[in-house]
Amino acid sequence: MADLLPFALFAFISSVTPGPANVAIFAKTSRTGFRASVPFVTGVLVGFLAVLVGGLALYAAGVALAGTALIYLKVVGAVYLIYLAVGIWLDRAQTDESFVGMRGALKGLPMHPLSVKAWLFVLLSYTTFKLDTSTLSVIAYPLVFLLAAVAAHLIWMTFGSALKGQIQTRYLQIINRISAVCIVVLVIYIFIP
To answer: Can you say whether residue 87 is alpha, beta or left, with left for phi > 0 and alpha for psi between -120 and 50 degrees?
Structure first.
């Protein structure tokens, strides 16, 4: 448990860096505002919780996410992220009811489970900080990582919602298109050896 503070710093930095989830959260909140984006972000966080628990199970079993499983994750994740990027690109910077309520949560849910970045950072953190299998560690480390993700997503939500209403619709549309291109670039980066 002595590594908890460095682990928390690692978790926050890896959570706040631009990635598919943060870019999508920024794009949604810049369009719909903070409150309307909460269901989508909640879905994103529930999906991340699944990655934290799944990563913990893989770590405890001594199994590395490599080989064929990583290839499948890359392909399925890339397809989902391209779908997300197209949706953001085609967005007209208007409130999208499909990202509000339960539908919004369901749209955010696959974000982290299909993200190579999420799996790699979680598994890297557990192995780097040599997570022991004591009950306290099994609860504390994933909880700290989840709280770091909540803080990071709140920062991206705040940044995105600060732009809502501050800039003209056509500029918001440009921001969303830049966000969509960033997601596609991240997808391409996934496949670079």
So the answer is: alpha
